[in-house]
Design a protein that fits this description.
- Helix content is 51%, strand content 15%.
- The chain is α/β, with parallel strands linked by helices.
- The strands form three sheets. The chain has a four-stranded antiparallel β-sheet. Strands 4-3-5-6 form a four-stranded parallel β-sheet. Strands 2-7 form a two-stranded antiparallel sheet.
- The longest helix has 56 residues.
- The termini are far apart.
């Protein structure tokens, strides 16, 4: 039975989603204090996705939203490259004028790369920069140089800069989509992922529209196949997670069928490998047997062709004369070996001593 491996559709009940949004907004109003109302502070509303299985590869999905999920009070910083033959102040003015000409109003600060390296080198300066801004953008020509200069705290707090093409003709639209949109990071170390969707100052209809847009884009851009989303929750930083979507139990049967198909495919591959090995081993054994038979036939032929030796071999009892003559010559050479000079001197000294003794004896008179 063939199982549909394509992505299963997630159909949200708009009325149920709107009820959850209204309940969350009512909860946030009760929790809001007088100070937050005076400062016009809003709380983030996020969607929490629980997947059926952990994805094999990490993925980052950019989601454009129909309604902006950032308030106008949010501070946005832009990192740019250093223009040739310009000082950092001149490049800062140049890019500020460029943004004004293109109609970009959401960027509050522009920092060239050389200024970032010099003025924000200490650790305290980097922490101050991180706390002063809510969102960071970067020129795509400088994006790969930033991680070694901004530090790990930008990534821990999920404020890493987002790439922008400053040379595009529709720069205002691109920046607006990035600023007012959201980014969802699907990690390959767990089955949960979260995306910021709205804030507490938005209406219930706007929040529901953003929720539907995020779910549709996520289902379209995810690389995995089969049933993906198990449960979707709506929550804020200080609230309980409210369920918005729960998948049917039929997905469990689909997943089981997919696993069975995978097991069958693996078993078939293993059987094919075993059959191949057996055929190759059988061929090798047949070849070895043929070679052994050929060798045995050759040995039999050689035994038939050989003539038996009827005359026994007799070992000679007497040694040849050559050996005797050689031994005699060696003895003579050893006897006639030259004596050393010391031996000659000792011999001559002995002879002289004997002569003197004889002369002395002759000179001694005979005693009568």
């Amino acid at each position: 039975m063939a199982v549909n491996m394509e992505k299963s559709e997630v159909v949200l009940d708009r009325a149920q989603v709107k009820k959850a949004v209204q309940a969350l907004q009512a909860f946030l109003k009760t929790k809001s204090t007088g100070e937050s109302l005076l400062l016009d502070e809003t709380q983030q509303i996020s969607l929490l996705f629980t997947l059926w299985k952990i994805p094999k590869k990490a993925q980052t999905i950019r989601i454009p939203l129909p309604h902006g999920q950032r308030p106008e009070t949010d501070e946005v910083c832009l990192f740019t490259r250093d223009e040739p033959n310009m000082t950092p102040d001149q490049t800062q003015r140049f890019y500020k004028k460029l943004l004004e000409q293109r109609g970009v109003k959401c960027v509050t600060e522009v920092i060239p790369f050389n200024m970032l390296k010099k003025e924000y080198k200490p650790f305290e300066a980097k922490r101050r920069l991180l706390g002063n801004f809510d969102l960071f953008l970067s020129d795509d020509r400088v994006r790969r140089l930033l991680p070694s200069h901004i530090g790990k705290h930008f990534y821990e707090r999920k404020k890493e800069p987002l790439c922008v093409d400053l040379q595009s003709k529709q720069l205002a639209r691109d920046i607006q989509r990035i600023v007012q949109g959201t980014v969802m990071k699907i990690n390959n170390k767990g089955s949960c992922c979260m995306a910021r969707v709205a804030h507490s100052g938005m209406t219930a209809d706007e929040v529901t529209d953003n929720i539907e847009a995020t779910v549709q884009t996520m289902m379209a851009k995810m690389r995995a196949k089969g049933p993906l989303i198990k449960v979707i929750h709506l929550k804020s930083l200080s609230s309980v997670a409210l369920p918005v979507y729960t998948s049917d139990l039929s997905h469990l049967t689909v997943i089981e069928d997919v696993k069975r198909q995978g097991r069958k495919a693996r078993e078939e591959k293993a059987l094919k490998k075993k059959n191949k090995m057996n055929t190759t081993e059988g061929k090798q054994t047949d070849a070895v047997k043929d070679e052994e038979n050929k060798a045995e036939e050759k040995d039999d032929d050689e035994e038939e062709d050989e003539i038996p030796q009827l005359v026994p071999l007799v070992t000679p009892t007497k040694k040849p004369k050559l050996e005797k003559t050689l031994k005699k010559k060696e003895k003579k050479t050893l006897e006639k070996a030259p004596k050393s000079a010391v031996a000659k001197k000792a011999k001559t000294a002995n002879k002289l001593g004997k002569k003197t003794d004889a002369k002395v004896k002759r000179k001694v008179p005979k005693v009568k």
